[in-house]
């Protein structure tokens, strides 16, 4: 799952990037509103963490422009402003949630998880597909209750497929959601990671849909 972080405070941005990456997310960072607006319009994200007090273009304007451009990514507003009218302005501009500074990192991560769950029509933080369970809070994956060891890329790929279990996901979509904006993207490597995952998961769980992509069998519980 890929997150867009738009935050001009360098120290806080570094802490947020580290925490989100440790939680299994791919993170793109923009240090001002102009870059944040651009990335939100040209890249594909599963959620955005957006500061309001940004240079060049303020966060509310960025959010309004995203929504005017029909960008529907879930947005968590992050700001030092804790007045009720600022919260109302953010929600009215199209924000999905609001978190005031200072905050606990665990709360931010929980809110990001909730945004992504809701965007995918999921109720539970633990995703299921057949005997496979993935706990989005701990990053723990089990098969019939037994833990499975995955690499970072394998986990990210499985998490994305499980959020969209039962749906066909193209290699292009997987590449867009698994790699940062400035990384070397090679959709052929997706096949390699799919092959590795198949060796660790029950046979037939990941189906290849010829000419279209991949589908994780079954719908996750809570959909």
From TrEMBL:
The modification 4-aspartylphosphate is found at residue 51. Residues 124-218 bind DNA. Transmembrane segments: none annotated. CDD domains: REC_OmpR_EcPhoP-like, trans_reg_C. One of its GO terms (cellular component) is cytosol. It comes from Sphaerotilus mobilis. This is Two-component system OmpR family response regulator. Keywords: DNA-binding, Phosphoprotein, Transcription, Transcription regulation, Two-component regulatory system. The keyword Transcription applies. InterPro entries: CheY-like_superfamily (IPR011006), OmpR/PhoB-type_DNA-bd (IPR001867), Sig_transdc_resp-reg_C-effctor (IPR016032), Sig_transdc_resp-reg_receiver (IPR001789), WalR-like (IPR039420), WH-like_DNA-bd_sf (IPR036388). Residues 124-218 form the OmpR/PhoB-type domain. It comes from the Bacteria. GO terms for molecular function: phosphorelay response regulator activity; transcription cis-regulatory region binding. The keyword Transcription applies. Residues 2-116 form the Response regulatory domain. One of its GO terms (biological process) is regulation of DNA-templated transcription.
């Amino acid at each position: 799952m890929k997150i867009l972080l738009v935050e001009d405070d360098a120290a806080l941005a570094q802490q947020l990037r580290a925490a989100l990456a440790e939680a299994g997310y791919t993170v793109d960072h923009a240090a001002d509103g102009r870059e944040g607006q651009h990335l939100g319009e040209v890249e594909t994200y599963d959620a955005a963490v957006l500061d309001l007090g940004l240079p060049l273009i303020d966060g509310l304007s960025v959010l309004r422009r995203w929504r005017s451009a029909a960008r529907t990514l879930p947005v968590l507003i992050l700001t030092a402003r804790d007045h009720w009218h600022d919260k109302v302005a953010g929600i009215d501009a199209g924000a999905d949630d609001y978190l005031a500074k200072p905050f606990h990192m665990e709360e931010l991560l929980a809110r990001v998880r909730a945004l992504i769950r809701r965007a995918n029509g999921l109720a539970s933080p633990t995703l299921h597909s057949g005997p496979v369970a993935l706990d989005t809070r701990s990053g723990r994956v089990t098969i019939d209750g037994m833990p499975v060891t995955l690499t970072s890329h394998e986990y990210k790929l499985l998490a994305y497929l499980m959020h969209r279990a039962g749906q066909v996901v193209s290699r292009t979509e997987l590449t867009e959601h698994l790699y940062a904006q400035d990384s070397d993207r090679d959709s052929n490597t997706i096949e390699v990671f799919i092959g590795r995952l198949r060796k660790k998961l029950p046979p037939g769980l990941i189906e290849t849909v010829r000419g279209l992509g991949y589908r994780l069998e079954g719908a996750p519980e809570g959909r």
